[in-house]
Specification:
two-stranded antiparallel sheet, 184 residues, alpha/beta, Rossmann fold, six-stranded mixed sheet, globular
Length: 184
Amino acid sequence: MDDRQRLKEIIREKSYRQGTFKLSSGKESDFYIDGKQTTLSAEGGWLCGKLLFEMIRDNPKKIEAVGGMTLGADPIVTAVSLVSFVEKAPIPAFIVRKESKKHGTEAYLEGQSNLPEGATVALVEDVVTTGGTLLKVIERVEAQGYKVGLVATIVDRQEGGAEALAAKGYELRAIFNRQTLLAD
Protein backbone atom coordinates (compact mmCIF):
# COMPACT_ATOMS: atom_id res chain seq x y z
CA MET A 1 0.00 0.00 0.00
CA ASP A 2 1.35 3.43 -0.86
CA ASP A 3 1.75 6.26 1.66
CA ARG A 4 -1.20 8.26 0.36
CA GLN A 5 -3.59 5.31 0.62
CA ARG A 6 -2.36 4.50 4.14
CA LEU A 7 -2.82 8.13 5.24
CA LYS A 8 -6.35 8.07 3.84
CA GLU A 9 -7.12 5.01 5.97
CA ILE A 10 -5.74 6.67 9.09
CA ILE A 11 -7.71 9.89 8.51
CA ARG A 12 -10.92 7.96 7.93
CA GLU A 13 -10.32 5.86 11.05
CA LYS A 14 -9.06 8.53 13.47
CA SER A 15 -10.30 11.91 12.22
CA TYR A 16 -13.47 11.60 10.12
CA ARG A 17 -16.85 11.77 11.91
CA GLN A 18 -20.41 12.02 10.62
CA GLY A 19 -23.13 13.89 12.47
CA THR A 20 -23.96 17.56 13.00
CA PHE A 21 -21.02 19.78 13.81
CA LYS A 22 -20.32 23.49 14.11
CA LEU A 23 -17.08 24.37 12.31
CA SER A 24 -14.56 27.07 13.25
CA SER A 25 -15.93 29.06 10.31
CA GLY A 26 -19.29 29.13 12.11
CA LYS A 27 -20.92 26.94 9.46
CA GLU A 28 -22.75 23.73 10.32
CA SER A 29 -21.71 20.52 8.63
CA ASP A 30 -22.82 16.90 8.43
CA PHE A 31 -19.22 15.75 8.85
CA TYR A 32 -16.14 16.76 10.80
CA ILE A 33 -12.46 16.08 10.31
CA ASP A 34 -10.47 16.38 13.52
CA GLY A 35 -7.08 16.51 11.83
CA LYS A 36 -5.12 16.52 15.07
CA GLN A 37 -6.20 12.93 15.77
CA THR A 38 -4.20 11.96 12.68
CA THR A 39 -1.34 14.47 12.82
CA LEU A 40 -0.63 13.69 16.47
CA SER A 41 -0.46 9.93 15.88
CA ALA A 42 3.00 8.59 15.12
CA GLU A 43 2.23 7.03 11.74
CA GLY A 44 -0.27 9.69 10.68
CA GLY A 45 2.12 12.51 11.60
CA TRP A 46 4.98 10.84 9.72
CA LEU A 47 2.86 10.31 6.61
CA CYS A 48 1.54 13.90 6.65
CA GLY A 49 5.09 15.17 6.99
CA LYS A 50 6.37 12.90 4.23
CA LEU A 51 3.63 13.68 1.71
CA LEU A 52 3.75 17.43 2.35
CA PHE A 53 7.57 17.40 2.17
CA GLU A 54 7.31 15.70 -1.24
CA MET A 55 4.86 18.40 -2.35
CA ILE A 56 7.29 21.09 -1.13
CA ARG A 57 10.31 19.38 -2.71
CA ASP A 58 8.51 19.14 -6.08
CA ASN A 59 7.17 22.71 -5.95
CA PRO A 60 8.40 24.91 -8.84
CA LYS A 61 9.41 27.65 -6.37
CA LYS A 62 12.20 26.71 -3.93
CA ILE A 63 10.72 26.60 -0.43
CA GLU A 64 12.99 27.75 2.40
CA ALA A 65 10.68 27.22 5.42
CA VAL A 66 7.33 25.69 6.37
CA GLY A 67 4.80 27.21 8.74
CA GLY A 68 1.19 27.54 9.72
CA MET A 69 -1.25 28.75 12.36
CA THR A 70 -1.00 27.31 15.84
CA LEU A 71 -2.48 24.81 16.97
CA GLY A 72 -3.58 22.81 13.95
CA ALA A 73 -0.38 23.29 11.98
CA ASP A 74 2.06 22.73 14.88
CA PRO A 75 2.46 18.96 14.48
CA ILE A 76 2.40 19.26 10.69
CA VAL A 77 5.21 21.81 10.36
CA THR A 78 7.27 19.83 12.85
CA ALA A 79 6.71 16.60 10.89
CA VAL A 80 7.61 18.25 7.56
CA SER A 81 10.76 19.75 9.05
CA LEU A 82 11.84 16.42 10.57
CA VAL A 83 11.20 14.54 7.31
CA SER A 84 13.16 17.19 5.42
CA PHE A 85 16.13 16.63 7.74
CA VAL A 86 15.98 12.85 7.29
CA GLU A 87 15.83 13.41 3.51
CA LYS A 88 18.98 15.59 3.73
CA ALA A 89 17.13 18.71 2.56
CA PRO A 90 16.43 20.50 5.87
CA ILE A 91 13.61 23.04 5.93
CA PRO A 92 13.06 24.98 9.18
CA ALA A 93 9.58 25.20 10.67
CA PHE A 94 7.81 28.22 12.12
CA ILE A 95 4.50 28.77 13.85
CA VAL A 96 2.13 31.72 13.50
CA ARG A 97 0.44 32.73 16.73
CA LYS A 98 -3.26 33.59 16.87
CA GLU A 99 -2.31 36.71 18.86
CA SER A 100 1.04 38.42 19.17
CA LYS A 101 3.11 37.73 22.27
CA LYS A 102 2.30 40.11 25.11
CA HIS A 103 5.94 40.23 26.21
CA GLY A 104 9.46 40.17 24.80
CA THR A 105 9.41 40.68 21.03
CA GLU A 106 5.58 40.71 20.83
CA ALA A 107 5.98 38.67 17.64
CA TYR A 108 3.35 36.72 15.72
CA LEU A 109 5.93 34.25 14.36
CA GLU A 110 7.81 31.66 16.42
CA GLY A 111 10.99 30.20 14.94
CA GLN A 112 11.62 33.28 12.83
CA SER A 113 15.36 33.36 13.62
CA ASN A 114 15.71 30.11 11.64
CA LEU A 115 14.29 31.69 8.48
CA PRO A 116 16.44 33.44 5.88
CA GLU A 117 15.46 37.08 5.39
CA GLY A 118 12.79 37.36 2.66
CA ALA A 119 12.44 33.56 2.48
CA THR A 120 9.91 31.85 0.25
CA VAL A 121 7.74 29.71 2.53
CA ALA A 122 5.12 26.99 2.39
CA LEU A 123 2.04 27.43 4.55
CA VAL A 124 0.20 24.33 5.69
CA GLU A 125 -3.05 23.48 7.44
CA ASP A 126 -4.70 20.22 8.46
CA VAL A 127 -8.20 20.98 7.13
CA VAL A 128 -9.40 23.90 4.97
CA THR A 129 -13.04 24.98 4.84
CA THR A 130 -13.35 28.70 4.03
CA GLY A 131 -9.62 29.49 3.82
CA GLY A 132 -9.95 32.19 6.49
CA THR A 133 -7.17 30.85 8.70
CA LEU A 134 -4.74 30.55 5.80
CA LEU A 135 -5.56 34.07 4.58
CA LYS A 136 -4.76 35.41 8.06
CA VAL A 137 -1.49 33.45 8.10
CA ILE A 138 -0.56 34.74 4.64
CA GLU A 139 -1.17 38.32 5.76
CA ARG A 140 1.00 37.93 8.89
CA VAL A 141 3.81 36.11 7.08
CA GLU A 142 3.94 38.62 4.22
CA ALA A 143 3.89 41.51 6.72
CA GLN A 144 7.19 40.09 8.04
CA GLY A 145 8.73 40.24 4.56
CA TYR A 146 8.39 36.58 3.54
CA LYS A 147 7.01 35.33 0.22
CA VAL A 148 4.39 32.58 0.04
CA GLY A 149 5.46 29.98 -2.52
CA LEU A 150 3.03 27.19 -1.61
CA VAL A 151 -0.24 26.85 0.30
CA ALA A 152 -1.12 23.25 1.15
CA THR A 153 -3.51 21.24 3.26
CA ILE A 154 -4.06 17.64 4.18
CA VAL A 155 -7.81 17.87 3.48
CA ASP A 156 -9.73 20.45 1.44
CA ARG A 157 -13.39 20.21 2.50
CA GLN A 158 -14.33 21.80 -0.88
CA GLU A 159 -16.43 24.49 0.77
CA GLY A 160 -14.97 27.64 -0.74
CA GLY A 161 -11.47 27.74 0.76
CA ALA A 162 -9.63 27.09 -2.50
CA GLU A 163 -11.74 29.73 -4.24
CA ALA A 164 -11.14 32.32 -1.48
CA LEU A 165 -7.40 31.73 -1.69
CA ALA A 166 -7.46 31.84 -5.51
CA ALA A 167 -9.26 35.20 -5.37
CA LYS A 168 -6.21 36.54 -3.51
CA GLY A 169 -3.77 34.92 -5.96
CA TYR A 170 -2.88 31.71 -4.06
CA GLU A 171 -3.44 28.17 -5.29
CA LEU A 172 -4.46 25.66 -2.61
CA ARG A 173 -2.87 22.25 -3.05
CA ALA A 174 -4.35 19.34 -1.10
CA ILE A 175 -3.35 15.77 -0.41
CA PHE A 176 -7.07 14.96 -0.31
CA ASN A 177 -10.29 16.77 -0.95
CA ARG A 178 -13.64 15.65 0.43
CA GLN A 179 -14.39 13.60 -2.66
CA THR A 180 -11.05 11.74 -2.81
CA LEU A 181 -10.99 11.17 0.94
CA LEU A 182 -14.39 9.49 0.96
CA ALA A 183 -13.95 7.54 -2.30
CA ASP A 184 -13.08 3.85 -1.94
